[in-house]
Design goal:
The complex is a heterodimer of chains A (189) and B (377). Helix content of chain A is 43%, strand content 23%. In chain A, 51% of the residues are buried. Chain A has six helices and six strands; from the N terminus they run βαβββαββαααα. Chain A is of the alpha/beta class and 189 residues long. In chain A, strand 4, helix 2 and strand 5 form a beta-alpha-beta unit. Chain B is an alpha/beta fold and 377 residues long. In chain B, strands 2, 3, 4, 5, 6, 7, 8 and 13 form an eight-stranded mixed sheet that branches. Chain B has a five-stranded mixed sheet with strand order 10-12-11-14-15, sandwiched between helices. Chain B has a two-stranded antiparallel ribbon with strand order 1-9. Chain B is globular, with a radius of gyration of 21 Å. Strand 2 of chain A pairs antiparallel with strand 9 of chain B.
């Protein structure tokens, strides 16, 4: 796999920095790929739009920051507005459809999903929306294997929440897979 | 067989892992962005392995405590950033002069003064060598990945003990905060200090008769000796004797200058047939790596020189490559500092181009690539 750059954005408290770390761990520890993760730091990380960046590659990674993202997740309108210019035109966009309501037309695919609602209704708590997103990212990008992602989530899940987190991951994965089929078919038309 | 565990962690966390593997038992510091994780992790980990963590009232006192702990016989370290590094300078000079082995991590952020507290820079690289007054021996290492932050922290402790000098780990915010996977070894033996074999009463703390680096004695082991920031004789007492003064100055210089082969370490990439050599260190080396790969794919023979040791400066290797290449490109996140050392060692043998940037952002590979292209025009 060539270098793949992901940017996860939202607001402080949505767990996106942790999601980036888990994605990096899935890639580097369990899929034996190279990965670097970095994140917004300082005042911008506390409220407003915050981001976590992950680069995954088969080869050693030189420049460690995202330059033109291949994938972007936006969990808030503000973070979408702030970071959308950093996504490649053909890149993949995933949004939480409840929070991100205004998306400009673009060449690359747009996946609007009820990430937070899936977390609350299918997995049991809104707080695992970040893990629902990770499931969706695996389905949409294949950047890490589902097996590796499961292991990385389990490593970080606080004791007693393993089942909820795995459920969140699977629900996100399945819902995204279904949506991906539909959207790709529409794009072919 | 070496036992390893793969962990995905920040540079600052890798520093603490490396320090503990090397035998760190004492940390004194005053937290400051972007080095704070080092203090936090030392506070958490040291008490569990029989070590001590103290948050001091300021950076000056922290450096004092580190020197005290070093003389008491334990591996000691502190970590800071720009404004705190400035405060440490006085006691850093003392550590250098009394020859107290210790490690000082400076996670460089944008300056001067309080600057851009959360943004990276490489603007303390001259200060690391010359920040404290007087001629003084010091070693400065510079990591360019999470892995190298782990390895160079261990190396810092080894060098500080071998040569009885403070060693500065000059990291930057990018390397300190990014996460990468590294292998943590659990079979490393702690760094050993060389202690005197003489009896109390016969021991001289600055004995120069058996080599350039005098063996130490531990406070509390029955050895009574004096140590001072004044010019001192071999017994550690103040002297104004010009012969003894010059002898001490010479030894302090020679213990580094006569051991350059043991100390200086430089990584090179694609330098064998290079026409353009990029000189970059720390996180800038990552940008430079992207630039030389891109240059090669455009048919320009570019190579990269990454010093792991900033001080003593790797003079020989720069002079050697200056004879071979058409041009050097020096890239650093400051307004031009190490470039003067590079220029000095090039002896005018090749063209010199530069990329200086001090706006709180990592230098983009394109900027370095543009200079590489200009160099071969």
């Amino acid at each position: 796999m060539p270098k793949y750059e992901l940017r996860l954005s939202g607001s402080g408290g949505q767990g996106l920095i942790l999601a980036g770390i888990m994605l990096g761990e899935a890639a580097s520890i369990y899929d034996n790929k190279e990965a670097t993760q970095s994140q917004s730091y300082g005042p911008e990380a506390r409220g407003g739009a915050s981001r976590s960046e992950v680069i995954i590659s088969d080869k050693p990674i030189d420049f460690p920051k995202v330059r033109q993202a291949d994938f972007m997740l936006s969990m808030t309108q503000e973070s979408y507005d702030k970071y959308i210019s950093g996504l490649r035109e053909e890149g993949v966009l995933l949004t939480d459809s409840f929070f991100v309501t205004k998306v400009k037309p673009r060449t690359g695919p747009v996946y609007s999903m009820d990430l937070t609602k899936i977390a609350a209704e299918k997995a049991g708590k809104k707080i695992v929306a970040n893990v629902v997103s990770l499931g969706a990212i695996v389905a949409l990008t294949n950047v890490v294997s589902l097996e590796a992602m499961k292991k990385a989530v389990l490593d970080r899940a606080p004791s007693g929440t393993e089942e909820m987190n795995l459920k969140a991951l699977e629900e996100g994965y399945n819902a995204a897979l279904e949506l991906k089929g539909k959207i790709l078919q529409e794009m072919k038309k | 067989m070496k036992m390893v565990k793969n962990k995905f962690m920040q540079g600052n966390a890798a520093c603490v892992e490396g320090a503990i593997s090397a035998g760190l038992k004492f940390y004194a510091g005053y937290p400051i962005t972007p080095s704070t994780e080092i203090a936090e992790l030392c506070a958490e980990k040291l008490p569990k392995i029989g070590g001590r963590f103290i948050q001091m009232e300021d950076e000056i006192a922290s450096m004092g405590a580190v020197i005290g702990a070093s003389f008491a016989g334990v591996m000691s370290m502190t970590a800071t950033s720009g404004p705190g590094f400035s405060l440490k300078q006085e006691n850093l000079g003392y550590a250098s002069f009394v020859e107290a082995p210790c490690v000082v991590v400076n996670v460089m952020r944008s300056g001067p003064s309080t600057g851009l507290p959360t943004s990276p820079a490489q603007s303390d690289v001259m200060q690391a060598k010359w920040g404290t007054h007087g001629d003084h021996p010091i070693i400065v290492l510079c990591p360019d990945s999470v892995k190298s932050m782990y390895e160079l922290t261990i190396r810092a402790f080894e060098l500080s003990e071998e040569f009885r000098v403070p060693v500065i780990l000059a990291a930057d915010e990018v390397i300190a905060h990014m996460r990468e996977a590294i292998e943590i070894r659990d079979d490393l033996k702690p760094v050993q200090r060389r202690y005197t074999t003489k009896k109390p009463g016969e021991f001289k703390p600055y004995d120069d008769s058996e080599g350039l680096v005098p063996p130490m004695a531990k406070f509390g082991d029955g050895y009574r000796f004096n140590t001072t920031g004044l010019m001192h004789d071999t017994e550690g007492f103040p002297t104004s004797d010009p012969v003894k003064s010059q002898k001490l100055q010479d030894r302090l210089r020679d213990k580094i200058e006569k051991n350059l082969e043991k100390i200086v370490s430089v990584k090179t990439y694609n330098m064998d047939d290079a026409e353009v050599a990029v000189f970059a260190y720390g996180s800038t080396a990552r940008s430079a790596m992207a630039a030389i790969v891109e240059a090669r794919s455009n048919g320009v023979k570019a190579g990269l020189i990454v010093p792991e040791t900033l001080w003593p400066f790797p003079e020989k290797i720069i002079s050697m490559y200056a004879e071979k290449v058409k041009a050097f490109v020096v890239a650093e996140m400051n307004m031009g500092q190490m470039v003067y050392e590079v220029e000095r060692c090039m002896h005018g043998k090749a063209k010199l181009l530069t990329v200086f940037q001090a706006n709180g952002e990592l230098i983009k590979p394109e900027l370095i690539l543009n200079r590489i292209k200009e160099a071969v025009k």
